[in-house]
Write a structure and sequence with these properties.
Among the domains are: 64 residues, no CATH class; 93 residues, Lambda Exonuclease, Chain A, CATH 3.90.320. With 263 residues, the protein is an alpha/beta fold. The N and C termini lie far apart (40 Å). Strands 1, 2, 3, 4, 5 and 6 form a six-stranded mixed β-sheet that branches. Helix content is 46%, strand content 18%. Bound molecules: iron/sulfur cluster (SF4). Iron/sulfur cluster binds next to helix 2 and helix 10. GO terms for molecular function: exonuclease activity; helicase activity. Keywords: ATP-binding, DNA damage, DNA repair, Exonuclease, Helicase, Hydrolase, Nuclease, Nucleotide-binding.
Length: 263
């Protein structure tokens, strides 16, 4: 069973959302782009392009230009708000790369990894894989409005799965996982042990067994509403399927596509 962090997160957040995302065919039409997702994609794309440059072409100013070159305004309130956030993103990226050792070249950038981990195949796209002190390090960029703590890095199923897949795929030690929060320029870091990675793997296996069992029962004619119940909450305001979900619409207000940006 192939398991990505997105699948796990969708299942944990709301089984009905999981069903609409991966099982319902045709897939129900999704809501339009959200500004916070656009902003995150632009920063990721700019940083990928930055590390594609030769070392002697890299500089904070060049990184800021790459943000401009990759900019998109989908989901923003209008040109004024989009321009304000483009400048912010340029500042974040400029400041971020200024702190990086200029000659450092990652082992991989935006690399798809896939490897067996217990009863599942852990896979996904890793933002960056660094090498430090002879070990590989998983780096994940974040652009949300809230800073991140050590426990966010420690408890992240996504980072744990990436570390497991990187170890197998590269045949190297990979224990450290890091969340790099661009808006604050901070890093939340955790060094896993074999035991902590095994615990995350077991959690992922358990969740995967749940959604696979529900999918199997559905394919044998099971009740979709019972197998994939709604899990309502504040997140329903941002769910891309809320227009198809009466319970979600009732549970949380409809918010504009730029509402999740930093206040
Ligand atoms: S709106 Fe809420 S309850 Fe409905 S599918 Fe989305 S997350 Fe689930």
């Amino acid at each position: 069973m192939r398991v990505t962090p997105a699948r796990l997160s969708n299942w944990q957040q709301c089984p009905r959302k999981y069903r609409m995302t991966y099982l319902d065919r045709p897939t129900p039409p999704r809501a339009g782009a959200r500004a916070n997702a656009t902003l995150g994609a632009v920063v990721h794309n700019a940083l990928r392009a930055y590390f594609d440059l030769r070392v002697d072409q890299r500089s904070p100013e060049r990184a800021a230009v790459l943000v401009r070159e990759h900019w998109k305004s989908d989901g923003f309130a209008g040109p004024e708000q989009a321009a304000e956030y483009r400048e912010r993103a340029q500042e974040w990226v400029r400041g971020y790369v200024a702190e990086l050792p200029p000659a450092d070249t990652p082992v991989a950038v935006e690399r798809w990894v896939s490897a067996p981990a217990g009863s599942i195949i852990a896979e996904g796209r890793v933002d960056r894989i660094d090498e430090r002190d002879g070990e590989l390090v998983v780096v994940d960029y974040k652009t949300g409005r809230y800073g991140l703590s050590v426990s966010d890095a420690r408890d992240s199923l996504a980072l744990g799965l990436y570390a497991l897949a990187v170890r197998k795929q590269f045949h190297r030690t990979c224990r450290r996982v890091e969340l790099h929060h661009l808006p604050t320029g901070t890093v939340a870091s955790w060094v896993h042990t074999a035991e902590s990675l095994a615990a995350l793997r077991e959690r992922a296996e358990q969740l995967a067994a749940e959604f696979q069992s529900a999918a199997d029962e559905l394919s044998f004619g099971g009740d979709p509403e019972a197998l994939f119940p709604v899990r309502t909450g504040r997140h329903c305001s941002w769910c891309e399927f809320r227009s198809h979900c009466a319970e979600g619409k009732q549970a949380a207000p409809d918010l504009p596509s730029w509402s999740a940006l930093e206040a």
